[in-house]
Structure formats: C-alpha cells, structure tokens
Predict the 3D structure of the following.
Amino acid sequence: MVDFPVISAIWDFLKRLRKNLKGFFGFIILIIFVIMGLFADLIAPYDPNEIVAGERLQPPSLKHLFGTDQYGRDIFSRVVHGARISIYVGLLSSIIALALGTTMGLLAGYYRKYIDEAISRVVDILLAFPALLLAILVVTILGPNLFNICISIGIVYTPQFARIVRAGVLSVREKEFVHAAIVAGDRDLTIMFSEILPNTFAPLIVQTSITFALAILTEAALSFLGLGIPPPTPAWGSMLYEARGYMEIAPWWTIAPGMAIFFAVLGFNMFGDGMRDILDPRLRIE
Amino acid sequence: MSESRKVDRRKFLVAGLGAGIVVVGGVAAYLATRPPQVVEKVVTVPVERTVERVVERTVQTTIGGTPTVITRQETVRETVVVTPEEEPVYGGELKVATWGAINTVDPHNAPAHQDLLICLAGYDTLFRFDENFYVIPWLAERYEVSSDGLEYTFYIRKGVYWQVIDRELTAEDVAYSLNRIQQAAIAKSYFPVWGEAVAIDRYTVKVRLPKRFAPLINCLANPGSRGSMILPKLSEEDFKKLGMSPEEFEEKGGFATIMIGTGPFRLVEFKRGEYERLEKHKKYWSRDEKDRQLPYLDKLEFIPQPDSSVRAMLVRAGSVDAALLLDAKDVPTLEATKGIKVIGMIGTNYCHLGMCWQHSPFNDKRVRQAVAHAINRDEVVRLALSGGGESAWSPLPSWNKYHKEFRIYEYNPKRAKELLEEAGVKEITGTLFTHNLPNAPETATVIQKQLAAVNINLEINVVDVGTYVAELKNRDPKKHTITIHIWVDKVDPWISLGVRFYPPGGSAFLEGIMPDVETTGIARVRDGLAEELDPEKYAKLVEEFQRIWVEEVVSVPIWFKANYMAHNEKVRNFSFEPQAALYSWDVMWKAP
Amino acid sequence: MEGTVGSKYAFIYRRLLTFVPTIFITITIIFFLVEIIPGDVAEVLAGPGANMLEVESLRKMLGLDLPAQERYLRFLLRLITGDLGKSLVTPMPVSKLILDSLPVTLTLAFSSMTLALLIGLPAGIVSALKRNTKFDLLVSFGALMGISMPGFWLGLILILVFCVQLRLLPAAGFVNPLIDPVNGFKYIILPSFTLGLILSAYIARITRSSLIEVMLQDYILTARAKGLSERIVIYRHALKNALIPVVTVVGFQFGALLGGAIIVETIFSVAGMGKLLYTSILNRDYPVIEGVAITMVSVYIFLNALVDLIYMYLDPRVRYG
C-alpha cells in the first residue's frame, strides 16, 4: 500500500492526540456527538416532532429517558436530533467566518495602506459590538432560519480570523522567499496561497475549533431570545427557549438541552486546547 | 516529568472527568425527577361573584329614531371579595407586575394594550360599559341624540377635577379632546365619521356629524377605541400651574409622557421597561357607596415583566402584590401557595388563522372549509395554552353580549380531506407565518401538525413583531401561506370587527386576506353597523356578521385566551371587567 | 528615554484621528442596516392588530415618511450639534435613555469584572506557579468547564436554586448599590455571579498560560541566576509581563460587558444598555440604536487606548514613537 503523506500525517496527529489527554477526551466527546447527529434517526427512540397530547410534561422515566415537553414530545429524541443541527450550525458558521476573515486578512495584510486601514476600521467596528447584539441585528435583517443564523454568526466571528490572517501575512511578508516570488513575477494570489497562508494554519485551526464552540453557544443564545431556529426544529437553544416558562413545572426540559450544549462545547474546547498543545506548545491560550 | 507523575496526571484527569460527570449528572437527575405538577386547567367563566346590589340605570337612547329615556332596575353582580364587616383602609402602595413596557401615556395615540392599562388608571371616559354591556354614565351624565342621528348633545358631570392643573372639567375640555381624535394616529380610525364638537355652555357639548354613525356612543364608552378618554385643553393658566411653557411641554413629550387626566391615579414617574409609578389623585370625583373619597390606595407601581412565569414568581415571593395576565401553566403553583388568590376568566386575546383569499387555492371556499375542519381547537388550547382558554367558534368571545356560537366546521380531518379532493387539491405546501409573542409559536407548532394530517405541509416561520407587521401587508402566498394572528378583541363589534373592513384602512392582517366584501355580504353588514341606531337590529347585524365570518371562513377562529390574575390576600376588591378593560384600582385597598 | 513624552502625545493624537472616521462609518453603516430591516417603528408600534391607517398616521407623526437620504442627512446635522435626538417610541431624549441605563450597566460590569478578577487572577497565578499539581489540574479543568457553560443556562439554574427553591434572593429587578447597598447587593449578586464566573474562567486560563510562558523566558532565568529571591522574581519581573495579555482580555471583556450582557439582563430583568439596544433593534428605533452604537464604539476605542497605555507602563520595551 502506498504510504500517502496525508494519511501518515493524520495518523501521526492521532498518535500525538492520544498522548494529550485533554485533546483526546475532547475528541471522544466530539465523536459521540457526531455519531449522534449522523445516526439520529437510528438512535432516537421516537419521532422528535411527534405530538402526543396525553403524555405532556412527563418527568424522566424508562419510557422517556429525558421526559417529555409541553406537547408530549420525547426530549431525548429531540436532544439527539439537536446534535445534527448544532454540528451544522457550528460547521457552517465556522466556514463562513473562516472564508470571510481570511479574505479580509489577506487583503489587509498584503496590500497595506488604504485597504488595510479601511478593513481594519471595519474589523474594529465589528469587534466594538458585542457578538450577540451584532448577531441579533443581522438575523433581524435576514430573517430567522437556520441558514441565515449561520451567516450572522459567521459574520460576528469573522474579525478574529481576519486579525490572525493579517498578523500572519505581516510577519511573513518581509521574508526573503516572498520577495523572491514577487521578483520572479508570481501573481499576487499565488503568493498569498502558497507562501503566506500555510504559515497561519496552526492558529487558524485552533481559532476554528473555538469558533465552532462559540457558534453553538451563540445559536443557543439567539434561540433563547426568540430569534433563533423556528419551531418545531429540535435545536438545543430553541428547546431552552420553549422550556423557559416551565422551569419549575418541568425542570428536566431545561436541564437536558442545557447539558447537551455544555458537553458539546466542552468537547470542542478540550479538543481545541489539545490541538493547540500539539501544534505549538508555546502558543498562548487566549 | 517523571513517569509516575505522568500516570498520576492521567489518573487524575480521568477521575476528575468522571467525578464531574457524576456530580453534574446527579444534580440534574435529582432536579429532573421531581414529580410533575398538574398543569391542565379548565376555565370556568367567570369566577367569584359574591356581591349583588340593585341599581337603577337611566339611559337615553333612540328607538326607531325617537329619543327615549329608559330607566331600568338591574341586579348588578360584582366580582368582588368583600367581607361585610371590613372597612377599607386608606393608604398604602400596590405593586403590580404587568406584561409589557409602556410606550406612551397619550391615550389617543396609545397603540399597545399595556399603554391602555396605565391610561385607564389616569383618564376617564364619557361613558362606560357595565358588565351587561349597557352604556352607563361616567363623565357624561346623560346624552341626547337628534332624530336624524346627526347631532349629539352631551351633558357633562359637574365637580370633576383635573389632576395637577387643579381645575374643574368643562365642556371646552371635552370638545377639545373629542376634536383631537381626528389628529390622533391611532384613535382616528375608530371614529371615521366626525364633524365637530362644540362647547355650548360650561357643561354642555354638541357634536355634529356629516352622516349617521351608530357606534359613536359605544366608541365613547369603550376604552379600546382610545379616543374615548378625555384630555384637557391646556390654557395659559394651566401651563403656569404645570410650571412650564407650551414649548417646554412639547419638548418633554407632551401628553405622551405627561399625564393630566381626571382618573383616580396619576403617572408621576416612569422608566421605560423598569417601572411606572402612579400617585393618588386627591380630588378624584368618584366616591364609594358610603360616599367616601376614592381611591383608597396612595400609590400604584407597575413593573413590566414580559415573562409570565417570572410574574408568577414575583407575586409568590411577595416582591409584588399582584400579577396580571398569567399563563394557565403558572396557575397551579400559585393556587397552591398560601396567601395567594387567583382569579381567572376568558379575556380578550383572540387567535385565528388567516389564508390568502386572493390566491389559489384559498380562493376556493372548499379549501378554506377544509382548513377549518382540520383544526382541533381543543387540542390547541390544551397544548399551546395549557388549558387556559376556550375554543373559539366566533370572532367574539363568549362573554360578549353579542356573541353567538357558530359550530359550522367541527374538527373532522376526514371531511377536510374530502373537501380538498373535491377542490382538486392534492397537497398544499408553503409557510405557516407568525410572530414570536407569547402563544403564537406554540399555537403554530400544534397547528402545523394538524394541517400536516390533511396533506397541508407547511414550514413554520416565526419572526419578530416589526418584521411581521411589515410583511403582512405584502401577502405572499409562498411566504405567508397561512398566518396565525393574535389580536386583542375590542369588545364592541364595530371597533373590533367593523372597523377592520371600513375603507380605506382595514387591518394590516386582513389586507392580505381581504375577502370579497360584496358577495359575502360583509359590506352590507359593515355599513349597517355604522348606521343602525336601533339596538335590536344592531344585535341582529352583529349576529350575521359573525355568521358570515365563520361560514365564509374569513379567518378560522381558534381560541380565546384566559386571563389569570393573582394577588396576595392582603389586597381587597381586586377585580377585572373584560368588557371595560378595567381593573378596579379605584376601589382596591390593602389590609395591613 | 528620548522621544517618550513626544511619542505619548503623538500616540493620543493618532488615536483621536481614527476616532472620527470610525464613528462616522459606524453611524452610516448602522443607519442603512436599520433601513434594510423589514418594518419600521410605525409598524412595530401599531402592533399586529393594527390597521394601515394607524400605521400611516404614526409614520407621519414620527417623520418617517421622508425618504431615507433626507432622514440620514437630518440625522447627521443633528449629531454635529451634539443632539442625539429623541427616541421614536417614547419621545424621550436618547441621551437620557442611555444615561438611565448606565447605572445598571456599570454596576453589572464592575461587579462582574471584580468577581471575575478576584477568582480568576489568583487561580491562574497559583496554578501557573504550581504547574501540573492537583491544584493546577483542578483549576484548569474548572476553567474549561467555565468557558463551556452557556451563560444563560447558568443564570436560569441559579434562579431555580436561589430564588425559587431557596427563596433567598430576588429574581428580577435592580437597586442602585450606591444608594442602597444592602438591597443593591442582593439584586446584583446573582447576575454578577452568572457573568463573573464565566469571565473568571477566561481570565484564569489566560493568566495561567501567559505566566507559564513568561516564566520560561531567558530574563527570568537570569534574574534567578543573579540570586534574587523567588518572590521578587515573580512579582517584579514575571507578573508585570504576564499581565499584558490579561489586560487585553480584561479590557475587551469589559467593553463587551457594557453592551453584551443582554441575555443576563433579560433573564434577571434589569434594564441595562444591552437591553436598550436589543429592544430598540426590535422596535427599529434608529435614533436609540445609533446613540447606543456610538456609545459602544467610543467606549471600545477609549478602552483600547487605555489598554495600550497600560502596556506602555507594563512593558518598557514598547514604544509608540
């Protein structure tokens, strides 16, 4: 079997991950949630949206592991299906933030002067606004559905990516090999992708895992305010929103999705920490 | 790092993670497995009628065009809990948790229901509805109307004093206030026919109309019309007493922030979203049955709190003395709390389903009928309102004098499917559109399932109120296939229903679903409502209006929500009259 | 140290220069963003039960029937004279609304930050010094849990336990601690705890990692080699430098607290600036949105400048000439 460099790199990475306990556990938690999301239909005992009027607000039992909500829907099934939504949200938001931020950072760092100033101003303004309020503004404009929420969260977390990429560009820009490439006549875009970008991989990957976790939290916060994913989709945040008025009557309804969010985010943070340790043990935790 | 330390670290991390999970899981399990509390609530309408008294009423009206004075004796039943020996105690402050922050205290421009709540504590109307829906005198002692219905004469009560500017209410004030309605954004639409009000002497006002407008007196009795509340005409002297110039008054917001009314309490301070503080009007004109000065309370404080469960918590914890508009799910815990009394009755929040009349397939009556048959109202009330409401078979609530039930389209999914087949519709897809205010998303969740059972598969779209109102007027059959709409019933059929079809305004909701007013007969009924002076014929018209509404499926009535209020037992004389939208602030008192 | 004084002023001057264009861009972007939002104030105020007549009249009354460009120019002109305008929903001056929300916001921000520093800083420092001991692992893991916790969930659970079950503390409302310390404390403790606990996790983590890295630096080894006591080494040399990234985070978080505590403000029903911005977005009340946006951006710029000044004190190697 031919030893592809990519496969050996991944295997190497997995070996190092196993040594780093935090990252490893985080990875396990993530795998659990990914499996939950992918095979939700198989794992969930009931249809997450099936309304059974006669069984509303039941506490956890053998029949309903996490109890039922005000419509008689099984909460465990809803939490399992919610994993799918959360992963989707995390993934899409991170990709959007990554794409937008990288573009902005590259342009700012490479071309400097006015473009840099303009982009830096915009980044500053984006940062001046608390993340949630910015997301609220964008969602109100676009309308609350799954896709738009991902866009708004992506926009909110773009600045950090832009800053990382810009810093990376600036630090590498003056180096010899870049000069050589310019002299050799390589096009700007080529230089950007082949020389500058690879240097920023490590912090970008770490930032992506942070953003993934933050995206899940932000989606939950948006849903909690009533601006999130519309019913009856079993998103964890929406479940918390629906459960809010029933905290005394049916506390299990609040606890289950909250715990799900907590563990998913914990998993991502542990994994991110582990990655950071592996990729560059001297990188600060911020 | 030595090997043993490495192993230690590993073991510790595993132990830590395990312990953490166990602890967190244990706490969660404990909290989670507490037995459920019964949240089903069946509403009995109404509650707590204990006091009866016989009252003589004098009403002037016209029958067949002839002005007549009618005197009738009535047994008035009051929703009051009073132990006969108890004497009301003067003084004290009442803290009440309400459902929303107010925007303005200018009653003529007050859009929201919570604005009305505060305004009614401070302003009076010319007339009032009693609980049997008769118009009784209030600021106006009596009235006369000419035989052609074009001229009204109001005789104003003497000895009514204004807050703050400390002078008597005169006909000039009334005339000014009535004419002001035409400049007021919100109130104007309820008084589409108007000429001019003129003060003929100190206590008499004449109003001339260009054509007959039968609902006028009802509009002046109903707070829901906004224009019924009387504001003062501020003179130079008045501004001096206020301590500001007319320009300063406008600068500070005018009547929108400064309350000058004749009512029992006056708004002295408010911080939007935090509190509204009112103080007693020392020269309030109304007295109790033993001729003592009202109100008893010194101060009122309203604390807006949009979350029903938090309002319930506040009243249980004693942070507030009373809580308004509670959800049914919060009631059992409240009833189980010592020292808390809960009152419940069907209120004025009304939910119905609208379809795009002008677009296919809803322009086919059979499709609309199918939708009406597909809805199981009882299930919606049970699941979305936790039982706190009644199924609606008419656009008017059951306690409304004009209410008639029209159970034309009972829950029958089989029949719904048959109708759809007849109409040649295999499946309908689109969006179930509504806003995110309480009860709307929950209703949508249940309705979506019920519609799916008859092959109407809709995606739910929940937006904030601003977007909702903006999109309503551009009704798009794909984006707003079916809309779940909640409005506050305004009690009087004209104000509640008729106005919505009166050109040119209509209603934002109905704009998009505007039925054919000519062939359905709505236009005829609507015009009749505006002109019919005979009360019996008027009632017949309203009955027909309801029938057309339900039968032609203008919209599908779903539920009327129950209004629960809770107060601690120290509060006496706490009651609410839905037809007048009045809480009994003027007669409430606190036992020490 | 030539050029330091001059560079300080130059630094401040340059900062001020960026202030004006930033504010201008902010105002313009916000204005047109609000324009894009479906619906305007009139529609929100009129409410779902409204009819179009009401909406139109309200619109006229509020001056919204003018075209967008005209409204924008009028708005700019007002701003230049320093007038933030009046809210369209309740005709109160925007400045008053913002000032009214300040006591809540500042109290919440200060108490949360204090709590976070009191817990986070010592935890981070000690765990860095006692690296890889049980204490360190405990703190690290706890901090990890802290940053993973959804803030509003923590708040809800706290309410469930302390207000509903134990009836110890009030669940909603605000009392100014400067006026009434005892009650003020009771009302602010839970919201501050909700925010502060999570913040302390962030602070602990970055303090720890920063200090660890600094301790590995050459100049620390040099100081130790010189024979200085461990105490002096830590306090005089290591900590000062380690605190640099901590200051960044604290500054940033403080700015975020001023407007971003919206969820906590909603759960605990306190009317701070975050709530003000949130309700004004829902209401499309653009003078208020603009007013708060300007305030937030200004505070952000100010905090950034402050943080940089602190840098200059902490790390003498930094020059802004």
Q: What stands out?
A: The mean pLDDT of chain A is 83. Residues 75-111 of chain A form the longest helix (37 residues).
